[in-house]
Amino acid sequence: MLLPVILYGDPVLKKRAEEITADYPKLPELIKNMWQTMYNASGVGIAAPQIGLSIRLFVVDTAQLTEKKKTDFQGIKKVFINPTILEEEGSEWKYEEGCLSIPGIREDVFRNPNIKIHYYDENFNEFTETFDDINARVIQHEYDHIEGILFTDKLKPLKRKLLLQKLNKIARGEVDVDYRVKAFKK
Predict the structure, then answer these.
(1) Any idea which residues carry the catalytic annotation?
(2) For 96-132, what is each residue's pLDDT tens digit?
């Protein structure tokens, strides 16, 4: 089932999400719906807060970028439950990021190129793995969502101020996208 993507301005996007257990209600169905919603919106990742759930869960599929990059890049398709980033290493590099919850805005964000992360998959198998390049970046972006951080929070204050009018329009639901969205109603 396609779920609406929560837009910038909703408090759920600024809240640190809660851990879940293996008996979380309808978890397999939720994960399936998150994949469908992400693909329908042409995303490479989506976190539970972006569909209105303040839980520590996100999905990432950078494997779909493998064909586009035409290099040695090895994408991943993974579910991350209750993740914790243990290490972030290397010289920060900038890359233009966007977000399904902040449509129409793309900006350069600086992130470390290497991460080590502990997480559980959809079957609650435990992993500690390292990732680099775009895989690390996408994981860090989605991880920020479950920490209540948006990529716009990482921009310099002047840049955020210049984007304020666009962000306010998004918060009001004034967006032109081809996927379902939901604006916060005060």
Answers:
(1) 142
(2) 999 999 999 999 999 999 999 999 999 999 999 999 9
Biggest CA-to-CA distance, the chain: 48
- Find out whether 44 and 77 touch, Cβ atoms under 8 Å: no
The per-residue pLDDT for 67 is 65
For the segment 138-164, the average pLDDT, to the nearest whole number, is: 97
Among the listed residues 123, 150, 120, the one whose alpha carbon sits nearest the alpha carbon of residue 47: 150
Q: Which domain holds residue 170?
A: 5-182
Domain count of the fold of the chain: 1
Please report, for the domain that includes residue 155, its CATH number. Answer: 3.90.45.10
**Residues 38, 133, 54, 184, CA torsion sign:** negative
Q: How far is CA 104 from CA 56, 101, 173, in A?
A: 26, 10, 12
Q: How far apart are CA 76 and CA 138, in angstroms?
A: 10
Phi and psi, residue 181, nearest 5°: -130, 165
